[in-house]
Amino acid sequence: MRILAIVVVLALVLVAAVGAVLGRLRPPELLAVPERGVVFADVTVVNPGRERIPGRTVRVEGDRIAAMGSGSAEPVQLRGGFLLPGLVDMHVHDADASIAGQPELFSMLYLAHGVTSVRNTGGGSSQLDWRERVTEGEVAGPRVF
Known about the structure:
This protein has three helices and eight strands, in the order αββββββαβαβ. The chain is of the alpha/beta class.
């Protein structure tokens, strides 16, 4: 009987610990690009398979690179680091929309790791709805094909 009580207490402690950990796992807050755009200074521009160009200033307006050069008179929001083209994952089985928060988490994880486009090789009509929400800008996520 005493062993059963110990097992029950340990199970309750384990459930409480798992609950505490899962309660802290949330998608990160979205980082919105200001309407006027953003300026990256003193970055290394990576052209995969070709070259790396250090010491560049890149101005982004909306979702496009507006200018790239060696200096800027504009206010700089971010300094240092590397800029490279977004990655494309050509074979994904996207998140299960029946699990609350999973599509949002998957979308943020793709973006956080530089994946800007995915080709979804499976899923039902909920995946088409998700693609539409990303396309319309309702939620952040990679472009879905």
